[in-house]
Design goal:
single chain
């Protein structure tokens, strides 16, 4: 499927909308449970952008069947971060700064594509996922409700990875400037979040 001017306009509009709302931080966790975890990735702009970016980067940077590796690495480290959050000694301010920085870094990953070693890219994905997991895990209760919420969060994140993968398949056939524009928008969003967290 070709990337026509109409699709380019839609992508630009979406990017502007995302950048305009980029200062939004994690919303609070009220209720615990699977449904709460499922919707949470769609409510926090930083998490949403990161999930979509990982799926997109994996599609444009990884070869063939390995394109699923990026999302799998993210999901594994996201779960680890959420489960280990109660015992990890790091301030939430530092975690939130790291999460915002990860969004900006994902913009750089998208820009570099296959020019970056895939292991280096996966290391960034894993580190970012761990920080996202800590950010969410600090708000969880212990026991069954927390496990259900983590399960829901993983499913919601996987759905966003899939959306990112779909974007990536379009970028494979799109003019190079489209990828650069999306990467720049993602980087600007991360930097905007970063500024609000100091």
């Amino acid at each position: 499927m070709s990337f026509n001017k109409s699709n380019a306009r839609r992508a630009a509009f979406i990017l502007l909308a995302l950048v305009a709302g980029a200062a939004q931080a994690h919303p609070g966790h009220g209720e615990e449970g699977f449904a709460s975890g499922l919707v949470h990735p769609f409510l926090g702009l930083d998490h949403l952008l990161a999930m979509v970016a990982v799926g997109t980067w994996s599609c444009i940077a990884m070869p063939g069947a390995k394109r699923v590796v990026g999302p799998l690495v993210f999901l594994a480290f996201l779960a680890a971060g959420a489960l280990l959050a109660p015992v990890v000694s790091i301030s939430m301010t530092s975690v939130e700064i790291g999460v915002a920085l990860s969004v900006a870094l994902f913009g750089a990953l998208m820009l570099l594509g296959r020019n970056l070693n895939s292991l280096a890219g996966l290391a960034i994905v894993g580190a970012a996922a761990f920080l996202h997991g800590i950010a969410h895990g600090n708000d969880l209760l212990t026991g069954e409700p927390a496990m259900a919420m983590i399960g829901g969060m993983l499913l919601g994140s996987a759905l966003l990875h899939g959306a990112g993968y779909a974007v990536g398949t379009q970028l494979l056939n799109a003019p190079r400037w489209v990828n650069r524009a999306m990467a720049a928008g993602l980087g600007m969003s991360g930097l905007a979040m970063l500024v609000t967290r100091f």
